[in-house]
Amino acid sequence: MTTEILKADEEGINKAAMLLKQGSVVGIPTETVYGLAANALDENAVRAIFTAKGRPSDNPLIVHISNMKMLYNLVSDVPDVAIKVAQRFWPGPLTMIFKKKDIIPNITSGGLDTVGIRMPADVTARLIIEKSGLPLAAPSANLSGSPSPTDSKHVYSDMNGRVPAIVDGGACGVGVESTVISFEDNSIRILRPGFVSPEDLSELGENVIIDSGVLEMLDANAVVRSPGMKYKHYSPNAQVYIVDSDFEKFSEFMKTKAEYGTYAVVFGNEPEIADVKAISYGVASEEQAHNLFDVLRRLDEIGAKNAYFRCPSRKGVGLAVYNRLLRAAAFRLITL
Ligand code: TXA
Ligand code: MG
Prior knowledge:
By secondary structure, the chain is of the alpha/beta class. The chain has helices spanning about 10-20, 45-55, 70-75, 80-90, 125-130, 150-160, 200, 245-255, 285-300, 320-330; strands spanning about 5, 25-30, 35-40, 60-65, 95-100, 115-120, 135, 165-170, 180-185, 185-190, 205-210, 240-245, 260-265, 275-280, 305-310, 335. The strands form 2 sheets. It has an 11-stranded mixed β-sheet with strand order 1-8-2-3-7-4-6-5-9-10-11, sandwiched between helices. Strands 14-13-15-12-16 form a 5-stranded parallel β-sheet, sandwiched between helices. It starts with a strand and ends with a strand. Threonylcarbamoyladenylate (TXA) binds near residues 109 and 180.
């Protein structure tokens, strides 16, 4: 199959909507990362997403909508707190878990009786949903295990020959996937951190719990609330390490590691370290979120063997950066 790159103009959006109505899989931009979209209500279309991604079938997909009426068609119970969250953060980079209606096939929900729903803010994504008239199941548009794609080039590199079309909407603004939350006994539980931070959610006056899977390695017997957390994720070919220290100690440590194929991944404003190759992933947490997956992919392009990342802040969207980096590093955290 040849993969067509569609522009994010009226013609491209119409073509994407038509392909989706025919049951095809299309790569689409969103404000977080690119998604691999198909009709969430069509078992065969959703099966084709799993095939294109090489994704395990028990890992559920997020369903993307463009208005609240679509939400009520798909889920059976919308708690009051969800309405509050929606009013504040939708459309935007946030996914809520609800009890699903039978209209959602089991393949979409990975066999669970719940479903994750997101109303994206990206204009192109919204137009594609509206023009197709369909709720769109869309996981991140990377091959399973690879860093999420934040540019159409990343999608093309993973999906060329696997999907009929990719809509090119340029670089994604946020750069990390949506915050995933569920509701329980008057609390909001964060299953996956994202641009909407625990601090942001707390401002609604609700109790916010950060699930243990966010910062800890889940052991084989743990109860997994978010199936995605148990899989290998975001792994470049390079061995990634997170180094938690000040710059002085980091630079002394890196001098002992200097060799061909080893890179320091620093904040943007730091001095050079003699004999050590360095790349930057930005200073502010928002900037680091925007750059992280591109930097992980770039490390592979330059043939990096080892990459030592300066430890990000865990505040605000920094928690999402840290969560993704922990997985890219297979939890290799060095504290100096
Ligand atoms: O920003 C995003 O969320 C992107 C864009 C394309 O919207 N999508 C995305 O999808 O990141 P994916 O499939 O790569 O990640 C979905 C995450 C997984 O960790 C999955 O386990 C979790 O959401 N999830 C989905 N449905 C769930 C459910 N019913 N219960 C618990 N976790 C769920
Ligand atoms: Mg993903």
